[in-house]
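User: Need the bound-state model for carboxymethyldethia coenzyme *A:
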Amino acid sequence: MDLIKDRFKAKADIASAEIKELLKEYGTRKIGEVTLSQVYQGMRGITGLVTETSLLDAQEGIRFRGHTIPELKEKLPTAQNGSEPLPEGLFYLMLMGELPTDEDVAHVTAILQRRSHVPNHVFDAIDALPITTHPMTMYVVGVMALQTESSFTKRYAEGMNKKDYWDAAFDDTLILIARLPRIAAYIYRRKYKNSEHIHPNGMLDWAGNLAHMMGFDDHSFRELMRLYMTIHADHEGGNVSAHTTHLVGSALSDPYLAYAAGMNGLAGPLHGLANQEVIKWIFEMQEELGTDDPTTEQIAAYVQKTLTSGKVVPGYGHAVLRKTDPRFTAQMEFGKKHMPDDKLVNTVWKIYETVPPILQSLGKIKNPWPNVDAHSGALLVHYGLVEYEFYTVLFAVSRALGVLASLIWDRALGFPLERPKSVTTDSVKMWIAGQDEIWEA
Ligand code: CMX
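Assistant: Bound-state model below.
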């Protein structure tokens, strides 16, 4: 691990010095203006965070350290006999800011394999929950139980110098990422497979091992997990899971506490839980229509019904994106390659033809196009992973790569406690009447 840590430290020192200079020279330059609507409506479009690992363009989608998803598919190392990128490679890219070699990726895989042992009390904590508990609740409880291992918290209590925060965050992050597949697979086997657990295979890569421990040893399912874990990993810093992890980490809560907080946000239906909602919605549509192969007319009528009953169409829309999510497209390409005739996957493609014009016609939805969650479930169902309440756990395992790489950078760059200003509506009214200067506060 020292090799990758030393490389990181060298890069972080350069970045820190650059930022210091930037702030010295341009620190008072204005980056934008904030309207009252933005203050009341979810702070959309306010630039107020630095996240080094990825950047989202409304038209083009996500770029990880400058690389689009199609570029990653070309440039990141793959498993032997595989063609999908290894998520360990994306983690390296997000952390170091440069593309890894095959050797670098093998090094990260080896680090993760060596640290993957999960202590028994974590399984005991999960087992203490009723079997009916939602898998995301079990997952966060598992992560919280693992927090006993935090070297950040131990070293802080021993008086760690703030120059070393990044080092402790680095250690915690690698251990946490290494152990998440085991926790996720344990939850899956406990809840859906009668607690018949499967031992890790120390020869497999991080995502391949997750597939194996869940009980899916099909080569193309492993490939799907590699792709899935890569494309769900990061979506710049303002989304709920990334922002929460960053915010909680800014209080110097250790990476376990910060990541668990972020994953509670991912478990919301407007964010990561949308992946389960999509399949639930399609299954309900199939049942109501009495067919597993609905026509576009039938789908259109069902979409209208969903909207009339005051619900959102899950998997469609986005707070920042204004085009089809390239993460949707990457999954569509996987579907075309591995399962072009699958009925459910074809239904997802028919929904893609049907929903955008309907949402567009409402006139209020800023983005009628599908996001990442519109596609993922159908690919999983194809391989027999039909237990849709589990899907957000897979998203969470992947999201650890981005939010925790960012958390290491937060500590390396010495970012302070996050504490934006809030106002009351009374103070807003006084400001409008010219009796208050709250905005200058
Ligand atoms: N179906 C129905 N209505 C939708 C909609 C959808 N898919 N997407 C947006 N709208 C509605 C909003 O609810 C809002 O309605 P009101 O004005 O009545 O409150 C209006 O359109 C305007 O919303 P917006 O500015 O276009 O979108 P927001 O930035 O407020 O919200 C999002 C973004 C993702 C929460 C929203 O599009 C949504 O609820 N989508 C469905 C859930 C989903 O797929 N979430 C996953 C996002 C990706 C992820 O994080 O994993």
